[in-house]
Amino acid sequence: MTTFSTKRQIRTASRLRRSGGLVLALIAALTASSCASRRDMQTTGSIPDDYRTRHPITLAEVRHDLDVPLGAGETDLTAATRDLIRGFAQDYTTTSKSTMTIAIPVGAPNSGAAHRLSGAIRQTLVGYGVKPQRIVMSSYGSSSSDGSAPVRLSFVAVKAVTEGCGQWPTDMFGRTLRDNENWENFGCASQQNLAAQISNPTDLVGPRGMSPIDAQRRATVITTYRDGE
C-alpha cells in the first residue's frame, strides 16, 4: 500500500514539473515576444519612443553676432556700449579661438563715426581678453540711407544645438493618444533648454581629464572626518 502511494506521488510530482516547465516556457516566450515587439516599435515606427533620438543634441559651428549701435555724431563709446562689447568679448574668450571680425558699414549716415570709433571698439575688445592678432577689420555695404547702420562684431564657435520645435504633422488626439505613443514635438523644449544651458559643448562628447590627487588635502579631510569636526 505504501509503495503504490509513493509511486502515485512520484507520477504526480513528475506531471507537475512538466506542466510547470511548460508554463515557464510559455511565459518566457510571451516576454520575448513583448520585448521584440517593443523594440520593433522603437526602431521601425515612424515616431521613435525616445525623445533624445527624435530631438538629438548635436555640436555645430554657429556664428555669433553683435550689432553695436553708433550715432552719426558720436565721438566716443558710451559706458553702455562698452558693457555690451565686454559681454560679447567674455563670450568669445570662453567659447572660441577663432578670429573676431569688426565690420564697418559703408554708405550709411553714420559711416564716418563708425570708422572713427572702430579703433576704440578694437581696444575695448583687446582690453577684455581678445588677442589683437585675432581681430580682423572689414566692411559691409549698408542699404540704409536714412537710419544708422551698426558696427557688426562676429565670431564662429562650436555650440550645442537642436532642431526647431513646433512640429505637429499628425493629429495628436487621433493616432498618437490612441496608440499610446509620444507625439512628434514631445521632449523638444527640454532638449532645447538643455542645449542652451551647456557651458562647454564638448562635455557632451566625453568627460574632462581629472587633476592629480592632492594627498595632503585628502589626509586633512580624513582626519577632520575621524575627529568629528
Percent of sequence in beta strands: 15-25%
Adjacency order of strands in the biggest sheet:
1-4-2-3
CATH fold topology of one domain: 60s Ribosomal Protein L30, Chain: A
In DSSP terms (H or I, runs of 4 or more residues), the helix count works out at 7
The Rg value, from CA coordinates, equals: 33 Å
Q: Work out the helicity level.
A: 40-55%
Spans of 5+ residues with little confidence (pLDDT < 50)?
36-45
Which architecture of one domain would the CATH scheme give at its second level?
Answer: 2-Layer Sandwich
Secondary-structure-derived class: alpha+beta
The rounded distance between the terminal residues' Cα atoms is 78 Å
Q: Main β-sheet: number of strands, strand sense, barrel status?
A: 4 strands, mixed
Arithmetic mean pLDDT: 79
Verbal overview:
By secondary structure, the chain is of the alpha+beta class. Among the domains are: 1-31; 62-156, OmpA-like domain (60s Ribosomal Protein L30, Chain: A, 2-Layer Sandwich). The chain is built from seven helices and four strands; from the N terminus they run H-H-E-H-E-H-E-E-H-H-H. The protein has a four-stranded mixed beta sheet with strand order 1-4-2-3. The radius of gyration is 33 Å and the shape is flat. The model is unreliable at 36-45 (pLDDT under 50).
